[in-house]
From TrEMBL:
Pfam families: Methyltrans_RNA, PUA_4
Protein source organism: Geodermatophilus ruber
Protein name per Swiss-Prot or TrEMBL: Ribosomal RNA small subunit methyltransferase E
Cellular-component GO terms for this entry: cytoplasm
Enzyme class: transferase
Boundaries of every Ribosomal RNA small subunit methyltransferase E PUA-like domain copy: 31-76
């Protein structure tokens, strides 16, 4: 059976999205494991319903359910889409929040269009990822990004990098076209910043205790511009999402 293929983003008409590590080329595929159990036991999908299955890297298969049972969801592929990455990459440098606010920040950022998330060990972070905690923290953030991608039906799961120090963040800013650091005392509003048409824009969000003077100086020296969102002071777990929403409105949702 041949499967139609193109690079257009499929219309979002309510069909659920499931993610597999690899997508077979054949006309049928099996959504098994945790994805399959969720489809059968929670969503209660049945024969004939339309679904999407992606690899999280831009490939999305549209199809219909052939059978749903203990083995999972068997799907007949109808079309295959190769969705290219956006022309303008949105990067969130997120200082480590306390407890579950970290995964929350990742979920919100994913739903609002982020392409890459950098966990940042800022000097005033209460949370500290040391040794084995770093691996567990990154794994939890990556799981949150994957779950939020399915919920928001995104063909690409945002990359979550290894945690970085302030020095590493400053070095990484050389690779972006525009770096913006959120600061409550900044004079320039985010809404008035001129954005590049392509490349990468980084949004830097400090911890609950705020940025240290040394971090402000270092980020500025690395090329970051201080901007403010508005008169309110947001939590670190929601400030990034607010900034990404403002950027997405101007670059992707217009």
């Amino acid at each position: 059976m041949s499967v139609a293929s193109d690079d257009r983003m499929p219309e979002l008409d309510g069909a659920p999205l499931f993610l597999l590590d690899e997508l077979p080329e054949a006309g049928e595929l099996l959504v098994d494991g945790a994805e399959g159990r969720h489809a059968v036991d929670v969503l209660r999908l049945t024969q004939g319903e339309r679904v999407r299955v992606g690899d999280g890297r831009g490939v999305v298969v549209e199809g219909e359910v052939l059978a749903a049972g203990p083995e999972g969801l068997r799907v007949r592929a109808r079309a295959r889409h190769e969705v290219p990455p956006p022309a303008l990459e949105l990067v969130l440098v997120q200082a480590l929040p306390k407890g579950e606010r970290g995964p929350l920040a990742v979920e919100l950022a994913t739903e609002l269009g982020v392409d890459r998330i950098v966990p940042w060990a800022a000097s005033r972070c209460v949370t500290r990822w040391r040794e084995d905690r770093a691996a567990k923290g990154v794994a939890k953030w990556r799981a949150a990004a994957r779950t939020a991608s399915k919920q928001s039906r995104r063909p690409r799961v945002p990359e979550v990098t290894e945690p970085m120090t302030t020095r590493q963040v400053c070095g990484a800013l050389a690779e972006v076209d525009l770096a913006l650091v959120l600061h409550e005392q900044a004079r320039h509003p985010l809404a008035r910043v001129d954005l590049p048409a392509e490349g990468a824009v980084a949004v830097i969000v400090g911890p609950e205790g705020g940025l240290s003077d040394g971090e402000v100086v270092a980020l500025s020296a690395a090329g970051a511009r201080a901007v403010r969102l508005g008169p309110e002071v947001l939590r670190t777990s929601t400030a990034g999402a607010a900034a990404l929403a403002a950027l997405s409105v101007r670059t992707r949702w217009a």
